[in-house]
């Protein structure tokens, strides 16, 4: 099965004076893909950013292979690889046709809106992520 | 008397593939200058963004004259021109040495954090803005 | 006939600590719509950003009516209203269902990539814009 | 000796609807510190972004510990740890007083502006980085 992905068009806002996509912005593209992946599991805004909890990024490892340029049509992948306690890990990548531009591991943590401390991922979300990890 | 201004250095994050500062980012530079101007009047974060009120931008008229480029040292001016009820207007400009790069009029409104509706600017702030407008 | 528009989803990258879309980012949304509008006329990247010319924004008048929030699905309109010499003007607006969030007039100028000075808009593009203005 | 650092004030542009600094923006803060660090070694824009070469980020590992919020005064550290061939690595961190908010390893590569392929870091820059690594 193909992993979940979203299309991203590169606009001038995404580029820098090097004539390429500003490398920081790949993290924005990846977050759009994670957000849509969660929505595809049934967890829209109310599930991931509400009065009780929100998700914060705890750790990113990203490797840049080739640069995207203005007007490129990219495909941005989000595949969960781990869910445990308060955190989950998503493998992400950015592609232009068959070419890999960047890949990353992004670790997210569920935190309380009030205390900003970690809280267990809600059971329904944990089960949905587990299921997705196991090829469901 | 010289108007209030702050220095801004142009970093790669501010540029676009045209090799110039992305025009949208001048509004960020201008907001930094407004924020520091308010601080200079004695209104730091607690005064302008608290549980009761915050300020939102209601209207911007901006004219771009010449482009800034990577590594430029800019000077960004903030001069209040009007304060009335829930709103105030700031004249802003961006300079590179003696050269004008952009100028703008920015209208800000004080709104309730709860209702998002306009509320009168607190008297101490209104007085400080009035005083600044009158050359104080 | 309905004006040209594109959908824009609000992601966390677009928001600020006020809990709303950072007002500066509406200009990014509007540029996405202008870019896609030009593409719909047959002018993709090669037409608007090439070795000879590019377009820069010269003037923006924007009015903010209501704030967008995280996860909103917006519609962003781009309608040309004037084309003359080196410049054209686009009326733009941002909507959430039937609600107007912001509207703007954006003036763009065609400039030489070499000299950064204004050059006449290429005839084919001028004609396409004129035609669009006249309801074509 | 204290490592090289720059102060960064958090403005509304840096925050997100979670009420904290948008995690992606720490990478911008870190790049400002790297740029100023290179300048402190004598390599301003002409040295790091010219007709022949520029530097691109190849790899980032970043860990987020605690969130910054609006108006925080941060200190952002840049310390080179390796220079070899076309690349160098910088250890970076973001602090609020004595508190660590994030740390990272950022690998940069020198590339040709023409071919976008790696080229050896110019000798003078390599020597300056080596010297800095060795506590010079």
Molecular structure report:
4 copies of one chain form a homotetramer. Chain A has helices at 25-40, 45-48, 123-133, and strands at 4-9, 53-64, 73-84, 87-96, 99-112. Chain A has one domain: Hotdog Thioesterase (Thiol Ester Dehydrase, Chain A, Roll). Chain A is of the alpha+beta class and 136 residues long. The first copy, chain A, contains 3 helices and 5 strands, in the order E-H-H-E-E-E-E-H. Chain A has a 5-stranded antiparallel beta sheet. Helix content of chain A is 23%, strand content 40%. The longest helix of chain A is centred in the first third of the chain and has 16 residues, at 25-40. In chain A, strand 4 and strand 5 form a beta hairpin. Chain A binds chain D through residues 17-18, 20, 23-25, 27-28, 31, 49, 54, 56-64, 67, 116, and chain D through 17-18, 20, 23-25, 27-28, 31, 49, 54, 56-64, 67, 116. Strand 2 (53-64) of chain A pairs antiparallel with strand 2 (53-64) of chain D, so a sheet runs across the interface.
CATH third-level topology of chain A = Thiol Ester Dehydrase, Chain A
**How large, in whole angstroms, is the Cα Rg of chain A?**
15 Å
CATH class of chain A, anyone?
A: Alpha Beta
Main sheet makeup of chain A: 5 strands, antiparallel
CATH architecture of chain A: Roll
**Number of structurally distinct domains of chain A:** 1
Helix content of chain A: 10-25%
